[in-house]
Amino acid sequence: MIVALASKGQLLAILANPLISGLGRISYGAYLYHLPIWTVFLSLSTRLGVLDVSRGPLTMLLVGASSVLAAFVSWVVVERPVMAWSKRLTSQVPA
User: Fold this and answer.
1) Are 30 and 67 a contacting pair, CB within 8 Å?
2) Rounded CA gap, 91 and 88, in Å?
3) What is the Cα–Cα distance from 46 to 43, expressed in whole angstroms?
């Protein structure tokens, strides 16, 4: 079904968008970071006595944006260098 839908021009154009493919590249990192960021945000909001917005759209937007930002930074600082190092290491191994 996905292949049939992807063969249509519009969906293929959407999936080929650099923003969408970039989000796909960091999506696992965003998945890993969203729960700790959510926990820290809620903990800080209760400690600081800020209005309880634990399930509001603003909270979801802030936590989501923070998770994507953390995933992007992690991808640039950790994942990309490790992948480059791995390629150099495996290309030097004699066959």
Assistant:
1) yes
2) 5
3) 5
Q: Is the dihedral of CA 23, 29, 35, 40 positive or negative?
A: negative
Burial group, residue 76, by CB count within 10 angstroms (0-12, 13-18, 19+): exposed
pLDDT 10s digit of each residue in the chain, 95 long?
566 665 667 777 777 788 888 888 999 999 999 999 999 888 887 787 765 656 678 888 988 999 999 999 999 999 999 988 988 888 776 65
Output b/e per residue, 40-64; b: 16+ Cβ within 10 A: ebbeeeeeeeeeeeeeeeebeeebe
Q: What is the dihedral of CA 57, 16, 25, 20, to 10 degrees?
A: -10
Cβ atoms within 10 A of the Cβ of 95, count?
2
